[in-house]
Amino acid sequence: MSLAAEAFVSQIAAAEPWPENATLYQPLKEDQILLSDCASSLAVQAYLRMCGLPVQVVCRANAEYMSPSGKIPFIHVGNQVVSELGPIVQFTKAKGHSLSDGLDDVQRAEMKAYMELVNNMLLTAELFIQWCDDATAAEISRPRYSSPYSWPLNNILAYQKQWEVRRKMNAIGWGGKTLEQVYEDVSQCCQALSQRLGTQPYFFSKQPTELDALVFGHLFTIITTRLTSGELAERIKGFSNLLSFCRRIEQTYFEDKSSST
Amino acid sequence: MGTVHAKSLDSIPMHGRDLTVHPDDLMEPPEQVNDSKQEILENKDVVVQHVNIQGLGRTKEDLLGYEISDVFHSKNLIDVMRKAHIARQRLLRLGIFKQVEVLIDTSEGTDALPNGLDVTFEVTEVKRLTGSYNTMVGNNEGSMVLGLKLPNTFGRAEKLTFQFSYGTKETSYGLSFFKPQPGNFERNLTLNLYKVTGQFPWSSLKETDKGMSAELNFPLGVTNHTLKWEGVWRELGCLARSASFAVREESGHSLKSALSHTVSIDSRNSAIFPSRGALLQINQELAGYTGGDASFLKEDFELQVNRRLFWDSVLSASLWGGMLYPIGGQSSSIADRFYLGGPTSVRGFGMYSIGPQSEGDYLGGEAYWAGGLHLYTPLPFRPGRGGFGDLFRTHFFLNAGNLCNLNYGDGPQAHLQKLAECIRWSYGAGIVLRLGNIARLELNYCVPMGVQSGDRICDGVQFGAGIRFL
């Protein structure tokens, strides 16, 4: 968001307390949502639960187009519509809820760096596997993405999305990568996260932060989603502390519902 | 006997009612040497032996045979001239000739009868390709519009048109192919391929439609029917970040595949300032049974009755109404609903600013009716009479209407009741200017009444330009 827009949102947001009817929108869970969107949505849900803010999850087929930035998920709070984890964190901060207040500047910078790592590595890898791998795209991504629409619109939209993602991959230099290389990158990313986590319960000692929510969202979704090849999940399961980290957050914050996806 | 030339018009006439042959348009009686000869000409039997068309290039002759065949049935000279003139009008309405001249001469040659006549139509075909290029500036947007027209493409009065508009904000294009039935020009088929974008600030909505349609027109007795299939890929989006959530919920893609039928009966003597006659047009559209996401049944009608009163003034009454019935349980889309209000419907209210709304964005409604009563008079003191002044009229109007959503579970009594409560109405006076034969401009002073909370009014002076007015 631009600086002026941020200031505007903060001002308006600070005025009202968090309402009871806050809603989070995502694509249809059973038939439509894809791995990357599910991971982002779970990250936001985990973050809001960690803050103790109630939110209702609503599934809509056109959630991606409803979102002001085109990305899932987005929340509708009072009169405001905010999408993606970064702006949502700032939005809740303006309302007085924050998980990273206890961190000093060095730690905050470190947290931002790791969040960037997750976004650049894990999220990009998820998108790559979904749309650039032909087998996955044909068997899973395209049919799921186009399921709410009728012919021929379903084919048009699915291919349009695929071309868009492939163009983006080429632009950031991932176009030439093979699946093996992507799995390697994911492993390295998890290695870095695992080292940082060590034996602590959360990344920054005892209290969870938005980084924990983000990592949980992505790792948990990857482990519990069925893809054409289980290799990605296996690589993550190789890091036992990350596995127990996911389980811990699931039990602490999501114990009242069955596991997602 | 000498040759007789008929008058030739300068411009190629457009389709529509204006092509009907008015009695005063028929040719003048031919110059005669003296009056006694006129009697002889009327009584003399003639036989039309040959009817030729000269100047054909790519036009196929079998198409023209239908238009000129009537000339053969003439019995006397006056009849020949009349029928030849009608045939000339029919040739011109095909839109493929720039000019048609008629020559009537005595027949020559070995098989010439003493009272035989040859009728020759000398035609000039239109050019194979015409193009146009315009730039348009308006509404914070500039655009370049390129048009290409290929009249008489394959020789049987088909027409292929292409229009492309490239703007700073939006691009749109349209390709259209028109084919009439040879011998029955009023029965024709049109195929369209288009992409149009529209911005609707009253709903904070923008819409991009990409689609194709096939349309069949045919007359049946006094009525004119149109059958159309249309397949459209619609993309809706919010025009601004501040759009209401109800409009945001409608964003996304949908596919509409609809069959529609329109029947119209038009006995008015003009489209813009009719002084007598009536128009009745009923349109129905069924979407969803030929594929697509949108599924509904939509009906709407338009009725207009005109009557001339004392002193060249005309009283005109019009009634519009419509209903949208979603099928299959899903709710209707904002792009299918009806809108009401503005300088072209219920005057005195903002553009499409009547009815259900959310945070200032108008969502349209599933049922509506609107009525208008107008008194048109020439300008006071009739300045510019016979010329420019005839393009203007003053009018006094009374408009009323209502737009709402119906609860389809209730019976028709409840529906009528719902449409009858909260009627918005307005009255006022203004000046109307006629533009060509298609559009009109209005400048009115309006007083809106019956305003409900949520409606946006435009009391005082309101300006309107358009094609279809209540």
From TrEMBL, chain A:
Entry similarity comment: Belongs to the metaxin family.
Domain Mitochondrial outer membrane transport complex Sam37/metaxin N-terminal: 41-161
Endpoints of the signal sequence: none
One Gene Ontology CC term in the entry: SAM complex
GO biological process, one term: protein transport
Family matches, as CDD domains: GST_C_Metaxin2, GST_N_Metaxin2
Record keywords, A-Z: Acetylation, Membrane, Mitochondrion, Mitochondrion outer membrane, Protein transport, Transport
InterPro entries, A to Z: Glutathione-S-Trfase_C_sf (IPR036282), Glutathione_S-Trfase (IPR040079), Metaxin_GST (IPR033468), Mito_Protein_Transport_Metaxin (IPR050931), Sam37/metaxin_N (IPR019564)
Function summary: Involved in transport of proteins into the mitochondrion.
UniProt-listed Gene3D superfamilies: 1.20.1050.10, Glutaredoxin
Residue stretches making up the Metaxin glutathione S-transferase domain: 187-249
Organism: Gouania willdenowi (Blunt-snouted clingfish)
Matching Pfam families: GST_C_6 (PF17171), Tom37 (PF10568)
Subunit-structure text: Interacts with MTX1/metaxin-1. Associates with the mitochondrial contact site and cristae organizing system (MICOS) complex, composed of at least MICOS10/MIC10, CHCHD3/MIC19, CHCHD6/MIC25, APOOL/MIC27, IMMT/MIC60, APOO/MIC23/MIC26 and QIL1/MIC13. This complex was also known under the names MINOS or MitOS complex. The MICOS complex associates with mitochondrial outer membrane proteins SAMM50, MTX1 and MTX2 (together described as components of the mitochondrial outer membrane sorting assembly machinery (SAM) complex) and DNAJC11, mitochondrial inner membrane protein TMEM11 and with HSPA9.
Subcellular compartments: Mitochondrion outer membrane
Keyword hit for Nucleus: no
UniProt xrefs under PANTHER family: METAXIN RELATED, METAXIN-2
Protein name per the record: Metaxin-2
Automatic annotation (TrEMBL), chain B:
Region entry Disordered, spans: 1-21
GO biological process: mitochondrial respiratory chain complex assembly; protein insertion into mitochondrial outer membrane
Domain of life: Eukaryota
Main location as per UniProt: mitochondrion
Keywords (A to Z) from UniProt: Membrane, Mitochondrion, Mitochondrion outer membrane, Transmembrane, Transmembrane beta strand
GO CC annotations on file: mitochondrial outer membrane
Ranges for domain POTRA: 46-126
Topological category with respect to the lipid bilayer: Multi-pass membrane protein
Subcellular location: Mitochondrion outer membrane
TM segment ranges: none
PROSITE patterns for this protein: POTRA (PS51779)
Keyword Manganese: no
Record family assignment: Belongs to the SAM50/omp85 family.
Protein name, UniProt field: POTRA domain-containing protein
UniProt lineage: Eukaryota, Metazoa, Chordata, Craniata, Vertebrata
Gene: samm50l
